[in-house]
Amino acid sequence: MRRPFRVLLCLAATALGLTTLSAPANAAAENYVALGDSYSSGVGTGGPYSGGGCKRSSNAYPQLWANSHKPASFQFAACSGAVTADVLNSQINSLTASTSLVTVSIGGNDAGFVDVITTCTLNGDSTCVNRVEQGKTFARNTLPARLDNVYNAIKQRSPSARVIVLGYPRFYKVPGSCSVGLSDTKRSAINSGADVLAEVTAQRATAAGFRFVDIRSAWTGHEICSSDLWLNSLTWPVEESYHPNKNGQSKGYLPALNAVTG
Fold it and tell me: Is residue 11 part of a domain?
């Protein structure tokens, strides 16, 4: 009778060992690096900001994640205004072979985010729609190679890291409760640009073997012209405009990141 019992013990020990090996890494052992643009650096939260012109906020989702998970190390390299070339030329230096977790949001500035918003604010519907279409063409035809370059560089620098690519929200609720501002035609056009950017980014992230986090659904009901904004409309200082506010970072981006790192 003892032999079957010993077999059961061995099987139980084996199962326990397999469970231990397959469990997610402890956050305390993570070496986390946050790359990206202003949506990762936290512009729009009102500060306080550090990093000079990079404007890294203590209210940005990378810092909030680090505060709550207490990784072994945290490098906050995201920078306001960054394009893919900035990640390749400077931010990438924050990565090492020991980096185990990387987050990145990039591509919006390459696709002309600022110029699209400016054009749509200062011009009529047709000019706005045309500018958005130009941005969508760029996103489909030129941006993929730029994203591939970034993702390949991340893999080369940190081949063992989990890499999480976070997207951008739709900007506007259409129709919304805004009594002044952009027309529904302009709002719909801008949202369509966000959709194309999300689709392209998701495709390239998946092709690289990375996890893409699409936050558009989480943002539903919290766009500009909704009753519970997670995104600034035109505001002061102007650079805070059209960026996630504190709720956008803590209730939008952070839970989305928690969901894939938990």
Answer: no
Q: How far apart are CA 55 and CA 26, in angstroms?
A: 30
How much of the chain, in percent, has pLDDT values that exceed 70? Answer: 88
Q: Which positions are catalytic?
A: 38, 243
Query: How far apart are alpha carbons 221 and 230 in whole angstroms?
Result: 9
Dump pLDDT digits (tens) for 115-162: 999 899 899 999 999 999 999 999 999 999 999 999 999 999 999 999
Domain enclosing residue 241, as ranges: 31-261
Number of domains in the chain: 1
| Per-residue confidence (pLDDT) for residue 14, from 0 to 100 | 40
| Positions of E strands within the chain | 31-36, 49-50, 56-57, 73-76, 101-105, 162-166, 211-213
pTM: predicted TM-score of the whole model, two decimal places: 0.88
CB 36 within 8 A of CB 81: no
- Report the distance separating Cα 242 and Cα 154, nearest Å: 28
